[in-house]
Design a protein that fits this description.
CATH class: Alpha Beta
Strand content: 25-35%
CATH topology: Rossmann fold
Helix content: 25-40%
Mean pLDDT: 78
Largest sheet: 6 strands, mixed
Length: about 190
């Protein structure tokens, strides 16, 4: 019995390690297309300064039961992405609440989304369906509101990735990093 318990104990380490590694999740699959000039790649140590972000959507999209959760993901992810890239960013309610210190406005229009939380994915697996979103992002110089560039971005998870596919929080985090990086490029071009 003692030998059996030692074997079981030793065999659980690889299973535990595999489980922990797979909980990290897959990267979000992002498709993007740009309209207008591409942002200039900058030195992230320099930082972009202050960035403001607004989220808009049709009333149909905002009436989605998960809109508040989706919006909250952006409110959390945008400042974190900016901090990671030596910038500051705030999600403003609308154009009238943009801080005067902001140099760039990222105006995000949410065309559609399907919110899937990490908890929901782990509890219910692939039957929760795919998380996805489709957005348009305009980059505007402040205070002039000059359009610097636009980008269409879509993300989706795939049921083939199982419970570890990139759900909405991971997708929003990934897209936030891309948008802040682009904002830095537009800032250095001004």
């Amino acid at each position: 019995m003692k030998i059996f318990l030692q074997i079981v104990k030793k065999s659980t380490y690889p299973i535990l390690a595999i489980t922990l590694v797979s909980l990290v999740g897959c990267a979000a699959a992002v498709k993007q297309s740009s309209n207008g000039p591409e942002p200039i790649v900058t030195n992230p140590q320099k930082g972009a300064g202050s960035i403001a972000v607004t989220l808009t959507a049709s009333s149909e999209v905002k009436n989605n039961d998960d809109w508040k959760s989706f919006f909250n993901e952006w409110q959390s992810a945008i400042p974190d992405a900016a901090t990671d890239q030596n910038a500051t960013a705030v999600v403003a309610d609308d154009d009238t609440s943009i801080p005067s210190s902001a140099k760039i406005l990222i105006r995000i229009k949410v065309n559609e989304f399907r919110y899937v939380s990490t908890t929901k994915r782990y509890l219910f697996g692939i039957i929760t369906g795919n998380a996805d979103m489709n957005i348009e992002a305009d980059f505007l110089a402040l205070p002039s509101m000059q359009l610097l560039g636009s980008k269409n971005i879509s993300t989706t998870s795939h049921t083939l990735e199982g419970i570890f596919s990139a759900v909405t929080p991971k997708q929003v985090e990934t897209v936030s990093k891309l948008l802040i990086q682009d904002a830095q490029g537009y800032t250095s071009a001004n």
